[in-house]
Hints:
Elements: E1 5-7, H1 9-18, H2 28-34, E2 49-56, E3 61-68, E4 73-80, H3 89-102, H4 114-130, H5 135-140, E5 143-145, E6 152-161, H6 165-176, E7 181-184, H7 192-196, E8 201-202, H8 206-209, H9 218-225, H10 237-251, H11 262-273, E9 275-276, E10 282-283, H12 287-306, E11 312-317, E12 327-330, H13 333-346, E13 350-352, E14 355-363, E15 366-374, E16 379-389, H14 398-404, H15 426-433, E17 438-439, E18 444-447, E19 470-472, H16 485-493, E20 500-505, H17 518-526, E21 530-533, H18 536-543, H19 547-563, E22 583-588, E23 591-595, E24 598-600, E25 606-608, E26 614-620, E27 625-626, H20 637-655
Parallel strand pairs: 6-7, 6-16, 7-13, 16-26, 24-27
Antiparallel strand pairs: 1-5, 2-3, 3-4, 8-12, 9-10, 11-12, 14-15, 15-16, 17-24, 18-23, 19-20, 20-22, 21-22, 25-26
Helix pairs in contact: 3-4, 6-13, 6-20, 9-10, 10-11, 11-12, 12-20, 18-19
Amino acid sequence: MRKNRRSTALLLALCLLAGLVAGCQAPAAETEASMPETTAAADALYTAGTYTGTAAGRNGDVTVSVTFSETAIESVEITDHKESEGIADPAIERIPEDIVAYQSLGVDTISGCTITSEAIIEAVAAAAAAAGADVDALRAVEVEQAEAGETIEKTVDVVVVGAGGAGMAAAASAAENGASVIILEKTAAVGGNTLASGLAMNAADPERTSQMDALTGQVATLEEVLTYDEAEFGDFADTLTTLKGQIEEYLAGDTSKSFDSVEWHIIQTYLGGKRTDINGNVVEGSYDLIYTLCSNSLDTYHWLGDTVGIALSDTITSPVGSLWLRGHNFETKQGVFDASLAYVEEHGGELMLETKAEHLLLDGDKVAGVSAVMGDGTEVIVHANAVILTTGGFGANEEMVREYNTYWPAIPEGIKTTCVASATGDGIGLALEAGAALVDMGLTQLMPTASAVTGQLADGLLVPSQYYMFVNQEGNRFVNEYAERDTLAAAALSQTDGVFYHIADQAMIPTLQNQATQEDVDAMVEKGIMYKADTLEELAEMIGCPAENLITSVEKYNSYVDAGVDEDFGKNVFGSKIETAPYYAVIEKPSVHHTMGGVQINTDAQVLDENGEVIEGLFAAGEVTGGIHAGNRLGGNAIADCMVFGRIAGANAANE
């Protein structure tokens, strides 16, 4: 957490220069032996020059270039990093400035990007060591915190807690509807888990889909739906009947083009989430919430572009575990938040960063605002007619994930997470203060295609899931790669060490979803996140499997692409074959990715209590809520969830 500070580094330097502190000055002979003649003076803290240092960050190495005079750190420049744009920006900008300003390695890390902050500090420490510095002394230089300011008190119509996708959508919607808005964000940047995601937003778009070529296997998948029995679909029976009629009409026409509908999205979301937990309980999503999500997604996507001003992309993708090609995208990730924040501020809204909501303000049974604390300890009181909780899930809180788990037989020890560090479940605690009901808290999603090296999203940044081919460490396929995420994760965890490889070829690189370049791919190879080889034999040697196994797996998979039928694992939708060198193998292992449970809401995004009654003045949206995704969330549905219910929450809170 960043603080206002005063350093003692200058005093230490003066002590060394003046020889006023006993023991500060090194013996002349020892100093001359360890330094070049030009900097051999006993009062030198560093060997003057520019030095490079490297340390491991969240997504890869962080490299710095540090210039020293004999007595000071003159400059710190970050020359290379792979940290997430937006999320890591405060650390990238401020940690180097702080190190120079306070001449200390004891500077505070930045809230929300602690790992990046620590990587920069450690990289500078490596450079300082190369310059002959006493690194331990630099770490010990104290950086004092300024006293907290006077309590800040504000009154607005709506206060939004959390500045991720749901929070920014809620704030924009509330502002659009005439409300005065304040957004409280505990970290130093907007974006949260949304910015760390692939940011594809599922939205059934029948008109557009009907102009796209059908993928191999899609027709057979739709034909199978006609065999489903409405008696097994409960509240979703009528939707299934409507869908069957749509499919029959489609099959009677031009099946060379693709198909989609809101009803198909609803049924896939329902089936994709219907599961049985480890206690034998059947869990499924609420019909009303799923219907609201799927029927409003496309309109909300266009609202984000037409009203909020976010640049939309023409690319349609199929994120891992999405089950269909309906992932709508944005031109850039950071652009989503730059545009939405600009819209809120243009309408009089305010963003308070590094301000953590501590408690809800209650007026009897009504929620009437939030108390918070800033990074320097200053208290903030915001009175409001409505509070919207958009704090995200608790995927970065391993203890909480384990405590609530009722889905996985075991959460592997030391499991990594794709989530940002701030996803610790704060909103759950706030909601409980008002008596909120919780739902599906034990249902956690593991991302099967996370990097085995970093724990972060890896394969999801490369190609849509119809192109996936997975092999285990023995070089054999082991799963239908187009299946739901929990199916993929369970299959992966049953393999040796839970590690597997996604096999791709060069022809797949142009399908990069506007999120990576060939340069990025080559950097992943250099960092050891993936392997690259000119032949499958060479690739097999790199991953340590028998060459005949990998070659046989690829040949069989290619034959299934040609036939449109997977005789081994039943993959039902295919992209292209793997046949163009060079070949790639991405090293992957499941990580904690999404917590499906949370605060119970209705279709107006109002928070409900244990009796199913509305808690006046309290709304919630996004991953802090539960009841939609049940046992497994479809890839691409999280962004739809954030944006749809964020928009609904903002509009209804404004009317509060």
